[in-house]
Amino acid sequence: MDLRLIAAGVAVAALAAFSGGWWSGYHAAQEHYTEQIVGIKNEYRAAQEQAEQEAKERYEQHQEKLSEALAARDAAVASAGSLRRTAEQLRVRASGRADSLQESSPPGNADAGRLAQCERLLGEGVGLAGEGAELSSRLAADKSALITQLQ
To answer: Which structural domain range is residue 17 located in?
Structure first.
């Protein structure tokens, strides 16, 4: 029986040593892996903050480029508006001149009527050219703004 008690004692001691070693190893591994996880999370957080900072800088650059392009567009539209007003003044003058030619010509004079019609058409052409120039300027400015934004 002494042998059985010794064997049981040895078994209990071995089991206790094994359990203690397992417990110690488990906690050591847990601490090691926890440190690794914290380190990886910190690396990801730093990379995320850097990416956010770079994205913010790119956004600000794009905003600046866009505001510059829009300012250029506004200037082009204002210039086109000035051109449109000038064309409208020319059209009004040509129309007025055509009306005065029509009224001052004798009733049987076909040439004066044709001249008045030509002046009227010329005035309409100037007006349409002004509209075309305004649209062209606006489209060119919009295109420039988009190209600038996309670069």
So the answer is: 1-52
